[in-house]
Amino acid sequence: MEQGTENLTKFVEEYKTYFTQLRRDLFITGIIFAIGAIIGLFSSQAIITFILSIYNFKGVTIMTTSPYQYVDVTLTTSFLCGILLALPYAFFRLFIFFKPALTKKESTLLTRFLPVSIILFVIGFSFGTWIIQLIISFYSSTWVGANVNTLWDIQHFFSQVIFMSILTGLIFQIPIVVTLLIRLNIVKKQIFIAKRRFIYVFLLGLAVLLPPTDVFSLIMLTLPLFFLFEFGLLLNRRV
């Protein structure tokens, strides 16, 4: 019992500096999140108006089904602003925290691909926004031709736009993930090539889980996933 207590004490003393730094980073991340959330809270109406102005709602009427939806959408906007403002700092400090445990090669790779990862996220986020516009145009024109009015709930629409855009931004990291797995010798490139059919099935299943769940959206989402995977292999053709 005394031996266990002594080992725990030694562990705490040895890593005390790291725990103190981690606590400080979490505290600063929380402050940045709070600042972003407050900014989002007071700017929610302008943000919502801007997002709605991006889309062409010809043949579609955006509506609310409850007076409380304004509060829900405002809080969602506030939360997302806090997350978006705090994430860059959180990821940077996380990298600094684990950097001593990384080899020089691992550290160099992560540093080199960070700007590329950000660019791919922005492209993926924009692609998700574009997909939503295609869905709006496709289905609204279909119903207009049948003389049917289309009513969309603003909370559902807003949540779907944000959720879809963020997920596609993350999915566009596939080339980075493939490259890191190959360059760090975690997975051989030959294994990716040999298991290509199974990876395609996995990517198809991933696309099925993404909103929206209609066939049109599934096709528009699946093809880019296949391309991103092949692009990841192309980047490592000389490895």
Summary?
With 239 residues, the chain is mainly alpha-helical.
Sheet of most strands: 2 strands, parallel
Strand order of the largest sheet: 1-2
Q: Alpha-carbon distance between the termini?
A: 52 Å
Number of domains: 1
Fraction in beta strands:
under 5%
How many extended strands?
2
Number of helices: 10
What is the CA-atom radius of gyration, in angstroms? 23 Å
> Secondary-structure element sequence?
HHHEHHEHHHHH
What does this structure look like?
- Helices cover 80% and strands 3% of the residues.
- The chain has helices at residues 2-14, 16-42, 44-54, 69-98, 104-145, 154-171, 174-183, 189-194, 196-209, 215-235; strands spanning 60-63, 150-153.
- The protein is flat, with a radius of gyration of 23 Å.
- The chain is built from ten helices and two strands.
- With 239 residues, it is mainly alpha-helical.
- Helix 2 (16-42) packs antiparallel against helix 4 and helix 4 packs parallel to helix 6 (154-171).
- It has one domain (2-172).
- It starts with a helix and ends with a helix.
- Strands 1-2 form a two-stranded parallel ribbon.
